[in-house]
Write a structure and sequence with these properties.
Blueprint lengths: L3 H5 L4 E5 L7 H10 L4 E5 L5 H11 L4 E5 L4 H10 L3 E3 L16 E2 L1 E2 L2 H9 L4 E4 L7 H9 L6 E4 L8 H5 L7 E3 L5 H5 L3 H12 L5
Parallel strand pairs: 1-2, 1-9, 2-3, 3-4, 4-5, 6-7, 7-8
The structure holds 3-phosphoglyceric acid.
Length: 207
Amino acid sequence: MISLPEILGLAPVVPVLIIEDETLAVPLARALVAGGLRALEVTLRTPSALACIERIAGEVEDCVIGAGTVLNRNMLDAVGKAGARFAVSPGLLEGHRFQDSAIPLLPGIATATEIMAGLSSGYDHFKLFPANIVGGTGALKAFASPFSQARFCPTGGVTPANAPDYLAEPNVVCVGGSWVAPVDLLRASDWARIEALARQAAALRRV
Ligand code: 3PG
């Protein structure tokens, strides 16, 4: 099992993917990997999401496929069976503890109380969500001193323009975002432009 720190260290950006047509999953993943983004998050927001995860897991080499929008234990179990190697949730999963998981989970937090609950459950990596709304880099600076062991992947409103500021925070390991796979390029199967967006994202620097 690849660990969460290893997965989140693969590239500075984890693409957040919403895929409606499962036949687009493999070429999309290949374009993102070719651009240098190896950890991908397919969100469970479309009926085809599990099939997309299965296809990418089975067909795309050099890719660590994950599942996003995992809202409960059943969804966590289902994505693991589909081949996901990590899971992301917008919040803390009620009653779920780190030790229970077959695959690593990146839980979402927005407040100090949620970070404390997550730390008590054994987590030390969190998705700050929705990052721009809950304080952005100011929140990350404020969390750094009381929660020195916590590391974050800010997601929600992250763009190529503000990603460098997030990545400059010492407690940020990577950012998440949907901008690398815009729906219009996906519908047009414009893999060259998606690969170019991925390449730009992969070139963003952590400090
Ligand atoms: C998520 O699920 O993490 C967000 O919807 C991604 O946010 P973005 O679309 O603002 O990048």
